[in-house]
Amino acid sequence: MALEPSRALADRAGRAPLPPGPHLRWWGLELLGPMQRDYLGFVCGLQRDWGDAAFTRIALERTCDVFAPELVRAVLVDYADAFVRWERGAAILSQGFGRSVLTSEGETWKRQRRLLAPEFAPARLQGYAGLMVAAARRALDRAAPASEAAQVEVEALMTALAMDVVLRTLFGSTTDEDAAQAADAVQLLSRVAAREMLLPATLPDWLPLPGKAAKRRALRALTALIRRQIRQCRRAADCRDAPAHLMGTLSKLRDENGRALLTDTELEQHCLVLLRAGHETTAAALIWWCRLIAEHPDEARRLRDEVDRVLSGRDPAVGDVPGLAWVAASLQEAMRLYPPVAALMTRRALREVQIGPWRIPRGALVRITPLITHRDARAFPDPEAFRPERFAPGAAPPPRGAFLPFSAGPRVCLGQHYAMLEMVLVATMLLQRYELQVPPGEARPELELGVTVRPRGGLLLRFVRRRDPA
Ligand code: HEM
Q1: Residue 369 resides in a domain
Q2: Which of 10, 104, 121, 329 lies 20 to 30 Å from 277 when distance is taken between CA atoms?
Q3: In a domain, 93, yes or no
Q4: Confidence at residue 238, expressed as pLDDT on a 0 to 100 scale
Q5: What is the distance between the alpha carbons of residues 235 and 241, in angstroms, rounded to a whole number?
Q6: CATH number for the domain including 389?
């Protein structure tokens, strides 16, 4: 692709250089193997060898990885209009996420975002808190026997719990069977999507190959579930008269002529994206938080003290959240160390831009890897340590661009307030019931990259019932 320097840059004294990067033979094809074997290791290697930004080229595709907070912020916020989502990533995600606010661009994106944003405004979230608490109570009370300690598979617990929450907030109610089926389908699609994103091209889904059949089955199961829920919801009185859940509100939206704003297909796509974006991410954050809390008993004690002081044993409500500041700080610190969307936030440059000292050519990809940016020692001293006080009340906010679990700029996560509310409520209720312990000899699990980052092989922890639940 020819380089076309922007007017602004051409007016300056010469163009800025490209970021540094490895000398590649074979058109960079030698990078494909390492990327697919261990993508996170590969990107960490680029940062270790080249610093704040690195340039690579595979065949005709040029890629700039940016790691330093100020460069990341420039891409996501200052020059947001110069970038669009990477079209291949969006195409892969839209197979499972539907053509929706997550994957669209331009006017379609603006319209969809405007439509959905009020549903995720803090004031609207109050209505969901009760549903979240009910789901958490049910899952956590059943997690371990009433009087003893038990080994709990935390990934399964949190995935099912987060799915239960999102299905209830979307449709008002759900069954265990639906939640389990949807969670299995989403996990499979997430693994497939991450694999496909690292390949230069993918074979069509209709091919009679074993992997493709599983993917088709998962997509069919999710779509069928959503259609069934929409049908049931339409029949139910609360959907018509008093929309207490998202599906109810969305299906009641009307234009100035009284016509439904969303077709059934659009409604399905919105439900699909919210179901997927809204459960995998919160589950991932809570899973890693559990592991960190189990590893740091002193921090856990401080959180239990806060929870007991604020709630004296009752269930939390929205009004309690501001008083649970250390719980929120511990969740933010967990997302700093293990950002659910850890990598592959990829954009394509629509025009040439200068980011810090570097030139990003028009048409190049820019990759952002929160997992690396979040561990920048300039922004977070002793970056590998779990220190909730970094986010506690009164702490200085992290430098701009250094902490982006929910991304930043115009495409910032639509569900960030919903997610924080859900996570604070779930974490609080867990702290009220259990002390978490790492089973003897159980090493910290490795990271497995899907659409979110999960512990490879799951996560086993000991849940010990608190003797004197507050
Ligand atoms: C801990 C939980 C969550 C995390 C870490 C998270 C993270 C993110 C990130 C990083 C993005 C931007 C991706 C990119 O720019 O490439 C994003 C976008 C989005 N998220 Fe979340 N998310 C979470 C929870 C949720 C929830 C609960 C919902 C909804 C129920 C949601 C809905 C969305 C939507 C619709 C977008 C697309 C926004 C747009 O492009 O305009 N997320 N999320």
Answers
A1: no
A2: 329
A3: no
A4: 53
A5: 11
A6: 1.10.630.10
Ligand 1 centre to CA of 119 (Å) is: 14
What pLDDT is stored for residue 5 in this prediction? Answer: 34
The residue whose CA has the least distance to atom 6 of ligand 1 is: 406
Indicate if 64 and 120 belong to the same structural domain. no
pLDDT at 470 over 50: no
Q: How far is ligand 1, taken at its centre, from the CA of residue 1, in Å?
A: 32
Q: Are residues 381 and 359 in the same domain?
A: no
Residue 202 has pLDDT above 90, yes or no: no
Cα distance between residue 410 and residue 177, in whole Å: 37
Instruction: Answer positive or negative: Cα dihedral of 100, 106, 111, 117.
Output: positive
Closest residue to atom 20 of ligand 1, CA basis: 413
Ligand 1 centre distance from Cα of residue 413 (Å): 4
**Residues of the domain holding 10:** 1-35+48-88+346-363
Sorted by sequence, the CB contacts under 8 Å of residue 143 that are 6+ apart come out as: 150, 152, 157, 433, 434, 463
What does the pLDDT look like over 127-143, one tens digit per residue? 889 989 999 999 999 88
The Cα–Cα gap between 277 and 169 comes to 13
- The pLDDT confidence band at residue 93, using thresholds 50, 70 and 90, is confident
User: What's the structural domain count of the chain?
Assistant: 2
**Cα(455) to centroid(ligand 1), Å:** 20
Q: Do 351 and 334 share a structural domain? A: no
Give 246's pLDDT tier (boundaries 50, 70, 90): confident
Candidate of 281, 403, 418, 454 to mutate for ligand 1, largest count of ligand atoms within 8 Å of Cβ: 281
